[in-house]
Each structure stands twice: as structure tokens, then as C-alpha cells.
Amino acid sequence: MQRREGPVVSANAEQMRYWNELSGPKWVALADRIDDQIAPLGREAMTRARVSAGERVLDVGCGCGQTTLELAERAGLEGRVLGVDLSQPMLAEARARAERGSGPAPDFLQADAQVHAFEPGAFDLLFSRFGVMFFDDSVAAFANLRAALAPDGRIAFLCWQNIAANPWMLVPAQAAAQHVELAPPAPGSPGPFAFADSEKVRGILAAAGFAEVRCDSFEGRMAIGRGMSLDAVVGFLGQMGPAGAALREAPASTRDAAARSMREALEPHHDGDAVVLPFASWIVSAARG
Hints:
alpha/beta; Rossmann fold; seven-stranded mixed β-sheet
């Protein structure tokens, strides 16, 4: 498995710091819970992308590697899968998972996909599960990634629709907002909802040179914290999404009050095994063009 030595060149120092010093270690600790929650969404995107044996796949924003390992299973021994992420802690977990596994072994690389010099034409598919909404310059990033695709290559990725269409994030955020200010992100800034506008996504990919861009809505109900008590789910969601970001620096008394409000808001949606709430995402696909 590949390892990157020395400093990583990044176009976004803030995201580099965030995913290595703040969010990365937290996501490692919560990796199994997060994967249980969103793995079905990633599998749907892989199925629609028609990942097949022998393909060369670049997994952008691979995090702790669950998607990379599954892509490697689908590509098989004749394929090649490379997982790329900014976060060293998350990549360490991804490599550990790969070493524990028995399937085809992917490679992992710490790099900023916006500026990294990938081998031209080296991949058949660029894939991402919620990992492409954090670029400082999305057009430049996708143009750089497009150069890594073979002439007949394609792209497929998942991104969130707006927060109003995602009660699994909105409900705890509204509860937390009773106790701490939730500042809206600056328009166009990197973040989980940066690609909520499908027309914006189409424009970015077209400007980067892609063709036949599609944004297909994928919606359903998400089970959060399967097998966890309601209090444990509240603790989990209190570390994630808009609520987690707002509560990170809050005093303990504020966090406790927010947890009580979140529990009250989430209790009607707890079915005894998980909190179940709607989600809405885009499955975006395009040809290299």
C-alpha cells in the first residue's frame, strides 16, 4: 500500500488542519457508527456507477476506507483502487482495516485531490461518498481529477441535498440551536452542503470539462445509531454535522442543555433500535468528455 512521505501540498490549509487535527481523530473514533449509517448510500452509488472487475478506481475523500475496500472487492484482483484523503489519522485507520481484511488490497495516499499530480489517464472511474464538497476551488479540483481519467472514464459521487431535506441533520441542529448559535456557512464555502444546488454542481462539472452530467435524487430513511440507546444516539449526533460543529467549543452546561433538547426532539423517531429519519442526496454522474 502506498504511503506519502513528507509534507502534503494542499490548496486549502484550513481544510488540511480541520481533517487532521479536529475532525479526523473524531471520525476515526466514530468510524464504525458512521459507516453503518451511510454505507447503504455508498453502495447504491457504486451500483449505479456499474463498478466492474478489472477497473481502475480513484476514491476521493476516502476517509477511513470503507468505500475503498468495497470498491476493491468489486474491481477484484485484476483491478486497481486508490483511496485519497487529506486526513492522516483517517488514512491510518483505512490502512489498518485493509491489513485486517482478506480481500483485494487497495492503496492509500495522503494528498489534496485539488492539486495532486495524479498519473494522467490512470483511472476508469472517479468515485466519492460525500468527499468532494470540501474543495477550495471546485472547478480546479474537478479539472485536475478529470486529467486522471482515461478518455472513456467517468465520475460518480454522492453529495447531500440541502439541510431542510435532511431531517437526520436538521432535527438535532434545530434542537441545539435553542442553546448555541448555529452560524450559516458563507455562500459557496466548502462544507457538507456546498453541493446542495444541483444546477451549481452541473455548472462546476461542465466548467471542469465533464459531459453528460446527471444529478439523480436519492432519498430514503436513514437508521442512525443502530443498536444504541437513545442517549447514546444523542451523544453521537452531538459530535456530528452542524450541531457538533456548534457545540464543540461550548461550555459543559450548554452542551448538557443541548443534549436534553436533542433527546426530546429525537425521541419520537427512536424505534427501539435506532433513530430513523429521512435523508436526501444527489448521486452525480458524468463522462470525462
